[in-house]
Amino acid sequence: MHHQPATVRRVTIVDVARHAGVSTTAVSKVLRNAYGTSSQMRSRVNAAVDELGYRPSAAARALRGRTWTLGVMLPDVRNPFFADILDGVAEHLDGTEYQLFMTSGCDDVTSEARVTEAMIDRSMDGLILIAPVSRPAHLERVGRTVPTVVIGRHSRSTGFDTVNDDDFAGAGLMVAHLAGLGHRRIAHIEHRETDPVRLAEMPNALRADGYRHAMLSHGLGEHIDIVSTGYTRDGGYHGARILLDRPVPPTAIFAGADVVALGVLDALTEAGLSVPGDISVSGYDDITLAGFRPISLTTVDQGGHRIGTTAIRLLLDRITDPGRPAARVKLAPTPVVRATTGPPR
Amino acid sequence: MHHQPATVRRVTIVDVARHAGVSTTAVSKVLRNAYGTSSQMRSRVNAAVDELGYRPSAAARALRGRTWTLGVMLPDVRNPFFADILDGVAEHLDGTEYQLFMTSGCDDVTSEARVTEAMIDRSMDGLILIAPVSRPAHLERVGRTVPTVVIGRHSRSTGFDTVNDDDFAGAGLMVAHLAGLGHRRIAHIEHRETDPVRLAEMPNALRADGYRHAMLSHGLGEHIDIVSTGYTRDGGYHGARILLDRPVPPTAIFAGADVVALGVLDALTEAGLSVPGDISVSGYDDITLAGFRPISLTTVDQGGHRIGTTAIRLLLDRITDPGRPAARVKLAPTPVVRATTGPPR
């Protein structure tokens, strides 16, 4: 035999009114600190509120004002770089009234539209969108409807704030490191991107641009070799397989993201190649796993934690002052040299 | 010069009423399909709704019924095992009206209370709580207020459903594998747990129990060696350091979770020990990284994806029928032997 659980009903304003022996309008007035309530009325209502444990629900508050709810849209919960950003956001919110809710698995225009709409529909006070792929007009519309900060998109929109690292410069730093070790055949694995707007705004596209530009400026233009897959471990695995099949394979692979570099290491292990003895590998992001000794990945630190704290500071500021000019924050990346890069054979 | 973004105001019921030239009460009646509205009134209101693009907000709907919002509480966004569960949940929700929101960073009673309260306060239709550490009375209260499924807690409560793998049996499978390879000094790293209730209900405690029981049944009682740290990479790292400092170190370390095993591998790499040549290592969970070739971790597959789909099916079922008896689902774990375990020296 099982118990039949009884559902506990939320105490409503109607219960408070009945308990206090007054009208719901009177209760509402007292709760809103409106004029026209007697001190006797106030004490009766407040006593009933206390006795019944009444708390106005977020849904009811949402009809009046703030919901103290913030939304974060992530493209992929499996990319541990986003956890660094979230840590920065959560740390800054600690001790405030705000509650943060995340959504993940948004990596196309349709699901991003659905998720941003869902967040607006739930009257969230502000949104942080991480590496969105939506068209600028959609982001602009979201930003004009609710205070929004976009991370990982070099947008020129005036409707929201942006926080990025300097992806173009970061890629250049990694090419300089590899060229400095004596590599010439340095290949790059990028995230496939065909949309012309995203080619100008997405971090992945700017990293590929930075790679190309740095190769040229190091006199390595003839060795430019870009494989287009995706910013996932699978993308890195398949990209490395393609590069290993070249008539003359590269001596170094610069993956556009650390998760991609993990896939590259997977393919090299399978091929029986040693790193960096046979081939050097580097990534981008500096996820915590990059510092894990069995991996020890050379990478570019884009300061995920700092990106997170910067974004949440901007968002709270924008919630207070939705009309202020859009902020464009670009943080400086730093190379982190570990054990997966060395001189070529 | 910056543009001053104009905030686009949501169309409200007041706008609809004004546009239709009727009262807000009349609009509300039409929208609720209430009695007492003329066909002329209905067509005027519906025309105004269409012309203004009015949609009742989730906040307003919440005051009447479902919000089509589900909440998932995660202890830690960095543990990739939870991503497998989320994949299973999201796959099952695909194509439904439901929107899923997650919170992470809840690993103590206080923050769990805050988060569950926040989810209830936002009128979510149902909750999935993953490995909560709250007291049974709190979980019971949550389950009686909103349809709830708890994953990763062997609870006997009647107020919510539970989905678990058989952690006791899974730990026994791993001890059997290691003992079968010839290991006798098999140590275990557990998550520190002192609360008597959680000692009976938490997966980590049941895995430690399963280890103890299996060691005894294999005649290895004198070699039982449990280090209590935490289910994180740091916990694995420090646990391994303690075990390596023993006068006679173990020949195999069975970590209670894959993230813990990663920390063990980190410490062994630092100590210059080879795996499994010098020492065997195994985990629990079968996170996707366990199959990553440079790691190739022997572990126990608890089927995270299946746990996720099972939980969301139960939750949708419970939303439809909140009074039905509590379901207790226990899934069978399977050992996955990869490259980190071998015979002792």
TrEMBL record, chains A, B:
GO molecular-function annotation terms? Answer: DNA binding
Which keywords accompany this UniProt record? DNA-binding, Transcription, Transcription regulation
* Parts of the chain that traverse the membrane: none
Per the record, the domain of life is Bacteria
Domain HTH lacI-type: from-to ranges: 11-65
> What's a Pfam family this protein contains?
LacI
PANTHER family, sorted: HTH-TYPE TRANSCRIPTIONAL REGULATOR GALS (PTHR30146:SF109), LACI-RELATED TRANSCRIPTIONAL REPRESSOR (PTHR30146)
What is the name attached to this protein's record?
LacI family DNA-binding transcriptional regulator
What lineage, starting at the top, does this entry show? Bacteria, Bacillati, Actinomycetota, Actinomycetes, Micromonosporales
